[in-house]
Amino acid sequence: MQNYSNRLLRGKIKAEYNTQAEFAKMMKMSEATLSAKLNHTSDFTQSEIKKAAELLHLNNDEILLLFFAEKV
User: Fold this and answer.
1) CATH no. of 7-68
2) Burial of 13 (0-12, 13-18, 19+ CB in 10 A)
3) What is the pTM of this model?
């Protein structure tokens, strides 16, 4: 499991889609699956990260920050 901070990712999801449920629908995954990924009980796949980046309009630096920055 990745040990990234999901605070920024959750904020970006809320800013773009208002709810995790709406973002999960756009990602074509259940709310439970998205929640598991955000709570570090499951990892995002490469294809899921790519799709999330497209949906959230992330550049490469933001992808690194939101999906790969370690917790401090």
Assistant:
1) 1.10.260
2) buried
3) 0.87
